[in-house]
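Q: For a teaching session next week I want to show students how multiple molecules come together into a single three-dimensional assembly. I've collected the sequence lines for a complex. Could you give me the predicted structure tokens for the whole thing so I can convert them for display?
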Amino acid sequence: MSKLRPTNRSILRRLALFAGLTCFVAIVMFPFYWQLVTSISPPGQLTQLTLIPDLNNASTDAYFFIFRERNFGRYLYNSFGVASLSTLFGISIASFSAYAIARMSFPGKALLLGLVLSIAMFPQIAIISPIFLFMRDMGLRNTWLGLIIPYMTFSLPLSMWYLTAFFKTIPDSLEDAARIDGCTPIQAFSKVIFPLALPGVFTAAILTFIYAWNEYLFALTINTQDAARTMPVGITMFQGEYTLPWVETSAAVVSVTVPLAIVVLIFQQRIISGATAGAVKE
Amino acid sequence: MEIRKTDGSRLRKGLSERQTAYALILPAMLVIFAVAVFPLLQTFYISLFDLRLNHPTRNARHFVHKLNLEQYVDMTDRGRSALASLSDSDVSDDVLRRLPAIGETLDRLHDTLVSNPDRLDQYERVRDLVVTFEPVRESSLRYFRISGLEANEALSLAEQLQDDVARAIAATRESPSRQLRVLEQISQDVGRSIVYPNFIGLGHYAAHFADTRLWSSLINTMTFVGFAVLFELVFGMLIALLINRKFLGRGAIRATVLIPWSIPAAVSALIWRYMYDGQFGIVARALDAVGLIGDSSVMLSTGSGAMVSLIVADIWKTTPFMALLLLGGLQTIDGTLYESARVDGARSYQQFFRITLPLLKNTMMVAIIFRSLDTFKVFDLVYVLTAGGPANATETLSVFAYRLMFRQMNFGSGSAVAVVVFICITLLSVVYVKALDSDMLTGHK
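A: Of course. Below is the structure for the complete assembly, covering every listed component.
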């Protein structure tokens, strides 16, 4: 293309491409932009918002309000704790079995893979009642553990799937060399394979964390006390009996989306490869 | 590539590898069985019972008639002591004359229910706990089994008791004393210590299939899935084709599209609920201004408006993911195919229909499968954005099941709907797997 002189037609095509992309990005980003505009709007002016905000009258009160008057800090703390621990436990369990599936031969492997895949498709509403009764009887309602147990379970399919594929990309010869040098299978795993697999483990961890951070159904049913709520549930509970405090809600939305957007920007390659792993391979 | 010297050592090595493998997968298996497979069976089991968490006698599963001894002992003891203090107190003769009948009915109730030495023994043990205000923790102690005949007999005696007490109250000229009030309450409640079997087999399923709400929520779910996945596929394809070219800032755009996908669905539902709001919503007001909708409250207050709102919000959130899946497929297509097509004079739409679409078929199938199975389970987006309303017009199966279980506390009926969701997902998966299989088979030929 670059060798040719740009013709009118190719300029037109570039313009069309550019216009299409601009349109697309504008549509995708507008809801977030509008949340930002709303969150800094002065009180009582929600019906007079303009597309370009009047920055002289901007107010950051809502941001202080959600942390001082609402339990938003607590929700974030709960979400962070639950998501981190679910990731830790889930990834440990997943990497053991992914290693076994990728590297060892044993009867029942196909059955295991089938089971894991079916769990990925599993509607969680189908088990919410026994899980709820179990957590109630064990006294695990309104605790972190009550959410960690289901989260680590339902993160297993994706992380096992991804990690198995990743472990398979590590050459067998490395492990054989370790085994010949006298390593046990466990040592071969922990000293040779695991360090090489760390990037894959990290990707699986990001995806598990995002899943646990975003989960709603279990969080809504199991942790109903305000102090035990996670962020997605807490943020939807800002609403009063008749009204939704939109300014506060939008401040909360902006506060959780900005860090997430930064994480996504930094790790986009990993996230894309992880999230589409199961689907692109047939 | 293991080094094997003798058969013996190979056997040992093989065994130890197998054992290690099993040890490694054991935690995952345990967790999956305990938290996913076993609860699924339990859900089916619960759906066979009329289980209501807020109901006095149906809050546990019962196959047979039982007597709740803890309640029975508590009530009859309080009844007898009220009766005794009433006989000693200063009441009119009219009332006094009616008291022995109450005592007799209580005795007959006791004889009917606590009719053999084993039951008497259990009765005494529970009574020891109740008089010291200890809770009866074991359910094997709290209940004993009674026959249906005994249960009916006891129930008619309870009604008899109600009559007896009512007659005594009718005989008082002044307002009834506190003891009489206690007796009245107990005569009304004693029947509740008899637990009826709430095993109803497939009764919930029959009731749901005969009712319209399950079907309308199924139709709502399928409408949502159909439109959302269709539009996501079309838009996703457009975007994938756009970002498949090399241009400045491609990485940035790829990252941008990931943001809606990575935020919680509940949060995206809130974002859209605000924009659809009849009073403050910018989207609702814009649509109103250009005349697409009659007035700005239409988006969330009419059934079709709410369904469109849901579908648009879902498209916004998941089209990027669809685009990334399709992009993955696009990048596996050999670029020389397009070059030779260009040389042969194929126009770009011809290239798309003759090269891109056929080669992308498998990727598209997988993307449709993933997305529709996922969308079929939709809960948080609907629950937060419309809560199934207005008038259940956007109630999906998952939201219906949730409302039955956690709003009405009707776990049996809600679990039946949850099982229906599971069956639908399983059927869909089977159909899809079959379609994919046959497609790949024909692809190989």
